[in-house]
Design brief:
- The chain is an alpha+beta fold and 240 residues long.
- The chain has helices at residues 46-52, 81-88, 107-117, 139-146, 164-170, 202-208, 228-239; strands at 34-38, 58-66, 69-78, 93-95, 98-104, 152-156, 181-185, 191-198, 215-216, 219-220, 222-225.
- β2 (58-66) and β3 (69-78) form a beta hairpin.
- The radius of gyration is 18 Å and the shape is elongated.
- It starts with 33 loop residues before the first strand and ends with a helix.
- It comes from Mikania micrantha.
- This is RRM domain-containing protein.
- GO terms for molecular function: RNA binding.
């Protein structure tokens, strides 16, 4: 098993694992463990990417959209640089009927892609410096304001280590109960990076949108108006 490989015994601080977003532990800087995938099937999901890299620890992934459609590109961040090295060995292997290019890229490319996905027009931010992203009035932001609200909000872009307590704390000003938080999971139990939160009222959900693009852990989290049907479907998928 991978855990027995001595090359994976890289530690940073007392946690025993490398945090790709944290370079403050007094260690020499290391390569940011991100790869880019190109040529993915257009029906590709995050589950397909997890299966494409069996045994490797993915801490973040981003499916790149262009004009509202999946572009066939993705960025994958691993827990350690050596895992990114192993991931590159999958270059030109098949996913379905398509062979996929896997190659190293710069962390700036990944951050640009995250900024674009969140709707920051031309914006760039670096998690290392915790800089606030530019607050441009993108089309995506305006579209959210025009959607019909219910008591439910969808969260996207959560850390894969997120717990209910993190989300309750995130919305501490809105009296969110623990049982009103559903973290979406894959069938194997690993989180997808999405969650659904039910508030006391529609007005409370609207007010909670003020937390859109605030941080949980190392991630800027995007909020969307959702519906009971969407939340139920996500919970059903988690139980399959």
């Amino acid at each position: 098993m991978m855990e027995s490989n001595p090359y994976f015994a890289v530690s940073s601080g007392s946690s025993g694992s490398y945090n790709p977003y944290d370079h403050t532990g007094g260690f020499p800087p290391v390569a940011f463990p991100v790869v880019r995938l190109r040529g993915l099937p257009f029906n590709c999901t995050d589950v397909d990417i997890f299966k494409f890299f069996p045994g490797l620890e993915i801490v973040d992934l981003l499916l790149v959209n262009k004009d509202g459609r999946f572009s066939g590109d993705a960025f994958v961040v691993f827990s350690r640089p050596i895992q990114a090295d192993l991931a590159v060995q999958k270059n030109r292997q098949n996913m379905g009927r398509r062979y996929v290019e896997v190659f190293k890229c710069k962390k700036q490319e990944y951050y640009y892609a995250v900024a674009a996905e969140l709707g920051y027009d031309g914006g760039y931010y670096d998690y290392d410096y915790r800089a606030s992203p530019p607050r441009s009035r993108s089309k995506k932001v305006k579209d959210k304001e025009q959607k019909e609200y219910t008591e439910i909000l969808k969260l996207r872009g959560l850390p894969f280590t997120v717990q209910k307590a993190d989300i309750v704390e995130f919305f501490k000003d809105f009296n969110v109960a623990d049982e009103k938080v559903h973290i979406a999971c894959r069938p194997d139990g690993k989180v997808t990076g999405e969650a659904y939160v039910t508030f006391e009222s529609i007005e409370a959900a609207k007010q909670a949108m003020s937390k859109d693009r605030f941080m949980i852990g190392s991630r800027y989290v995007e909020l969307f108006p959702s519906t009971p049907d969407e939340a139920r479907r996500a919970e059903s998928r988690s139980r399959q």
